[in-house]
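Hey,
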Amino acid sequence: MALPRNPWSLATCAVEGNRDALVAFWLAAPRDQLEQLWNSSFGEATREMVQALHNEAHFTANQVALRNEIGERFSQEGLAHPMCQQLMLANFLLAPPGLLKINNVEQYFPVWLANAYKELYENGTIPASSTPSPQGLASPPPTPTPTPTPTPTQTPTAASSIPPAPELGPFPLNLEELLSNRIQLNRLLGLSNLYYIDPDDEEIRNELLQVRSALAAAIEICPENQLEQFWSTELGDRYWALVRSGIQKEPLSPEEQARKQNAVSKLNPSIGGGFGQPLALNAFLITMIYFLPGTMQVDGAAEKLPAWLLPHYQQIFAEALPT
């Protein structure tokens, strides 16, 4: 455990921007005292800091990493694990109002926490200010966000962050633009996490299908020698959240069916494709967002897949389908 360098004050927490201290407090708080703490000055300070956020709020790299980790936890374990309440309270501090969505929240959390979520994310509005708020965390996602999360992100998490569609603009046409677009990255993570939690939500499903199609098109045109660089960033985390989401079980449009078949053909040695051929890795990344984990295997994967791709393929995609 690292020793703190400076003290912090609850009374001036929002003014001084001590978001990290408050996040750490909620993560370490005893579960049997959470409701009482939320109804105290700790909850008041948290609400004040969350309501001061807006959809362009800036978060530090460490805060983004923590938000993503919360989204991952929600995505992998859902909203029923012992730490879900502490994680969600910490996640509040990383998700601006309007950018976190949890369907049927009453099914996952006690009444006091469900009401806290509704107060912050269903009854409030996003501050209009474009001036960054005090440093703090987020991601959406979904996991997700439970997101998210989420996860997840995010399981809702900040990873389950889904901005209203009219404010998003078009999904980036290439991976370079996507990597520089924080809102669209969080949108991808948040939708993946939210679908993982509630695949019957038609609005989430339809939006995630659109995002998946746009992402596949961007992967398709990416120079193959740049894929490793992109997948070592947050974009890679978002991609694997999509692979885990289960969206692959949804029916495909004719356009998506054609894209899927084209990718499969590029990996078929009998018709001139296969690993080692140009754009084979692009095709493989595309196939994983159209085939459910466990339904497609690569023979001799250790020899055919590069080191940056192999571990995630083995851990996330090559696993057997849950029974």
